[in-house]
Design brief:
mainly alpha, 4 helices
């Protein structure tokens, strides 16, 4: 990861995307994995529940490009930070489990992913 100072005024999601781009250029596999996973977790948190979607008669269906699209949830900056913190915690817990199983190499990779995410908070 880069040693440049992090601009906290930039939204966290944008910092994650920028860091992902930089990690891809430097081929930092652990940072790429951690950043992609965090961005995916954020996207999943924005998804609406399928329980909220009701099917009806075809004659009442929406017609046209994008007519059936559902608005995604709006997450606050605090929500996104909480998701990233949860991803960091999960990685540390999994790394500890790998260590107890004698797979410290996998644990080290997960800790590197957590460090890449933690640097952006």
């Amino acid at each position: 990861m880069s040693t440049e100072p992090i601009d906290k005024s930039v939204p966290l999601r944008d910092r994650l995307r920028t860091a992902l781009s930089a990690a891809m250029k430097t081929r930092d596999r652990s940072a790429i994995a951690g950043l992609r996973s965090a961005l995916g977790a954020i996207d999943n948190a924005e998804a609406i529940d399928t329980v909220d979607i009701k099917a009806g008669a075809i004659e009442y269906s929406a017609v046209g490009l994008g007519a059936a699209e559902a608005r995604r949830r709006d997450l606050t900056e605090a929500d996104i930070a909480q998701i990233v913190r949860a991803e960091i915690t999960d990685r540390h817990q999994s790394a500890d489990e790998y260590d107890t199983l004698g797979r410290s190499d996998h644990g080290d990779l997960l800790r590197a992913e957590a460090a890449a995410l933690d640097a952006l908070l």
